[in-house]
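re: that chain from earlier
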Amino acid sequence: MASLPTGTLTFLFTDIEGSTALWERHPDAMRAALARHDAILQEHIAAQQGVVFKTIGDAFCAAFPTAPDALAAALKAQQTLQSEPWDATGPLRVRMALNTGAAEARGGDYYGPPLNRVARLLSVGHGEQVLLFPSTVELVRGLAPQAVGFKDLGAHKLKDLQRAEIFQLTHPDLRADFPELRSLNNRCNNLPAQLTTFIGREREILELNRLFHTSRLLTLTGSGGCGKTRLALHAAAELLEGDDAGVWLVEFASLSQPEWVPQTVATALGLHEEPGKPLAQTLIEFIQARPLLLILDNCEHLLVACATLAETLLRACPNIHLLATSREALGIPGETTFRIPSLSLPDPKMPPTLENALRSESIRLFVERARAVQPSFALAEADVPALVQLCRRLDGIPFAIELAAARVSALSISQIATRLDDRFRLLTGGSRTALPRQQTLRAMIDWSYGLLSPQEQALLRRLAVFAGGWDLEAAERVCADPGGALPIEDWEILDLMQALIQKSLVDHEVGAGGAHRYCLQESVHEYAETILTDTNTSLERYPRQHLNYYLHLAEQAHTQLQGPEQAAWLDRLEEENDNLRSALNYALGRKRRAQSTSQAPQALPAEDVAPQALRLVAALIPFWQIRGYFREGSDYLRAILALPEAPDTAPIRIRALNGAGMLARFQGDYSHARQFHRQSLALAEASGNRQAQAETLLSLATLDYYYVDDTAAAHVHLRAALDVTRSLGDGALNATAQHRMGMVATETGDWSTAHAAFQESLRQWEALGDRTGIAEVRMWQGWLATRQGDYPTAHASLNAGLLALRILKDRLRLNMVFFAYADLAGAEGRSEHAACLWGIVHTLVEELGAAIPPRFRAAYDRNMNALRQTLGDTAFDAAFALGSALSLEAAIEAVLQEEAISPG
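^ sequence. v structure.
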């Protein structure tokens, strides 16, 4: 074998499509055909200065010093293969893939990400097809043989989690049409697909791979904008290639309170707080037996909390690996830090030619991002010296290069370089390498900010009030200021924001239904927030407008959460949850985005916005209840209820107190639940608010019957509630009262009363179009039918309830309906099926962090014991474990299809 070339290489991988079947059908002919195949590839690879460094069966792996050589070898080999007169085997259809990058040569082989990437590219192709990544296409543009073209096949998700742009080699002699690529989805993870190509970093990933196997905590450090998060996401797939471990991303960028760090990790893993148990213990018990990689992203503003949790998990969970990103190390034992360097720059010893320049990561990144802004962009040979100078002046910082590339629609490369030189005169006067990276990034953003018009600058500053993104309407309502020192009308926002998108200062994505959503990158957000504060003009105006806008949104949603648009509004609130949290933090005098573990109040007097805060939490109660944000909702409610009471807020305060009681009882805190409900009732009675009085009485009746098993007290509160509701004529209130009456009648054996009450409740909920009310009544009708031995009716009723709850993603009531299904299966004598369903209930209770009420706990324990006696320990445990392991969606589908969920 010839000596292996080194440096940045282009790799050609090939294999024969369907070769196994050909060997089965034509073993003798395949021996001759494969020998000819091998000779053709060897001839054309060697003719273009390539080296075959590995063959596996009929697969070839070759390396070339230049991309044009690799392309020529692939083209000529395909031309020969496709014109070859094959005998009995028929044509051998060979697929090929090309990728460019730096890899490590060792022991006659190559190692590194470029090899993995080209193998993945080859795996999605078809016989007779030649596939390339953009990095290789760039190196051969203008240098390829005549009639060669590159067909853009679009972005495809490969095993490295990236939606990679893929090109197909075209030529008159080659086959042109192929089926869709065999794109692969990655194994179980929550990592987001990347919307832009990942450029370079091959050497860093090789080093991270080495460090990963010597340390269980690897922290990527560096300034904002250096690409910590992107590199972590890309490296995670490389680090665990072929490993069974799960990969889970935990994002802290929009988190403001350190005490929510464990909850954020738990949420990413699908876990919820268990009553009476520290959340850290729940995490430990889940992780201990699992090989797991957690990516803890953006830890710098929550350093102490992240470090504490990381050390706890590392000590207690031997199979966990942590990959953290932070502007500084976590500072705990066993940590290995890796500072991310700049992207590679063109070799100053080499002539500044187009081919040499495109070997550097920084140049390739600029070209790729410039083409995203201006699809017709092509780097000309004459522009190379100016672009090399520009990338060097930017120190190869990815974010800075992207900002510069965004200007190609308005400025030439030489003009960008000139402006950059003028702007950075102060920073380049001394030793550039001695300057902190944050300072360099700030200078880059300063430069980009300076290129904006005054109105664009003003909008960028104002957009800093958002957390987790926004839509156009929110920007128009929050950021418009027609009468300010720098007026911006609401109709001007769209054009201004579009300008910021084009200049890479605002990101946007298109969601379901074509809706656009916008966000600031973290570094830009921090910069804009700082500028907003430093201007010291209208400092409170935009946070207040932000609070008022999201208050209006929440109250609008609240009116729709008992109607046909319920599911859509729940999803809308979920999407805006970060902004809702930010508005509440502002109202409480907390920092909207904490920079330390302290949450001391700001100078803002909290009572100044206390009425809006009270209205906001009161409006969010149904959302927190349905989507399972029990702990978070309780924390906000209690904090805001503790603020000085403002005049004329009694009706809202009554609702907030009643909601605090509901969320407390879901968590099993029945003492505080009763306390909140009684405070709500007393205030309702004192103010003469009969509707609120009835609502609170119904809550107390539910607490007495549904949770603490005090039927006598439930009757008292229910009768009092019915006396009030009869005179009010409120449909939702009457429906709730009838439903509660049916619940009590079911448990006391008064089935005719229960049946009539449920029917009336259902009629009223259907008239209102309220899926939650309909689902809950249908569930209880199923329970009643089970008690009466009418199993077909029970199945029909429970299925109707389950379908509604599936749309709402109402995990609390989904848990209840599975409870009813399990009870029904036990009554039918389907013991294994019942045990599996109880396993589903067990998992949902744990994930939700809710408590099984005493009334139902007795039934739960009774069923468990009866089934264990019927099935025996082994069979019961197997069925219960099967149910516990099912995903919620799989469990729903199985029940709706009336499948028997059992080990058999």
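The first strand starts at residue 8 and ends at 16.
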